[in-house]
From TrEMBL:
Biological source species: Lupinus angustifolius
Source lineage: Eukaryota, Viridiplantae, Streptophyta, Embryophyta, Tracheophyta
PANTHER family: CRAL-TRIO DOMAIN-CONTAINING PROTEIN, SEC14P-LIKE PHOSPHATIDYLINOSITOL TRANSFER FAMILY PROTEIN
UniProt-listed Pfam families: CRAL_TRIO, CRAL_TRIO_N
InterPro entries in UniProt: CRAL-TRIO_dom, CRAL-TRIO_dom_sf, CRAL/TRIO_N_dom, CRAL/TRIO_N_dom_sf
PROSITE patterns: CRAL_TRIO
Protein name (Swiss-Prot/TrEMBL): CRAL-TRIO domain-containing protein
Alphabetical list of SMART domains matching this protein: CRAL_TRIO_N, SEC14
Residue span, CRAL-TRIO domain: 79-239
CDD domains noted in UniProt: SEC14 (cd00170)
Amino acid sequence: MGVVSQDALNQLQALMDQVEEPLKKTFQNVHQGLVTENLVRFLRAREWNASKAHKMLVDCLIWRVQNEIDNILSKPIVPPDLYRAVRDSQLIGVSGYSREGLPVFAIGVGLSTFDKASVHYYVQSHIQINEYRDCVILPSASRKHGRPITTCIKVLDMTGLKLSALNQIKLLTIISSIDDLNYPEKTNTYYIVNAPYIFSACWKVVKPLLQERTRRKVQVLPGSGRDELLKVMDYESLPHFCKKEGSGSAKHSVTGSQNCYSLDHPFHQELYNYMKQQSRIHEAVVPIKQGSFHVDFPEPPAEEEEIAKTIESEIHKFKGTNGDSDYNMAFKSMVIED
């Protein structure tokens, strides 16, 4: 790090040394022993301004304490049928690791419907996956490779993206805001695959609104992205929807153990078993209450609000000229060009 960044790091460290309980304890759960690396994350998110990074980090810690985020992995979504419904409609999973040891998260943006449970369950599920990544997956990868691994790779599958995605923008904005404010700089690269025309249109108007550090992380790949992704990971770590040479992927084209979205996939089995184990440990001290784990939704940053409004406006333009069926007929075979 250069002199300026080191100065900012020293300033932030001095400010955080003054933090008292219970914020100090939850900060330990955030940094997992990697204090410097986590301070740097918040500094990057605030353009190396130590006072702004300090406010962001303290706000994050307050949010964690007020919403009992440190205990969220001890509160599995029950019954299992409800959790399976969440997994079937909020498509996310881990397919493997890059050659550098970064976990590869696959996200089915286009085929996620978010229509099988309340918003609170989807938010709870998303935060649980974030916490499992930070408390279990990344520390395990760090130990395996003998160096700090603090970020992941995300492969976003746009298969099935339709104009009706407008109905999901509010929920997606909530989830995105939670990530931006409380889990900044956790993604090394976003790979966009199987992108239809509607994504191309939205991307053109959204891209200029993103901060430069975010734009640099986004790579839009042709088709399923298979050939490009094989440059950074082995075939076994490719998400199931990237293992074909052409574009597009069927939600149920592979078995549960191969489909990294499925509750039957090893990642989700390990995650759910871990949460059940944590639940039994926690329940011995505090009885578990049934029902969703309600988390306060943060006010979206101005950038998030502007992006959401821009996407809504762009989609409304399409709705004014084409229905979903007409759109699919016209643009079914089109993919994004970088």
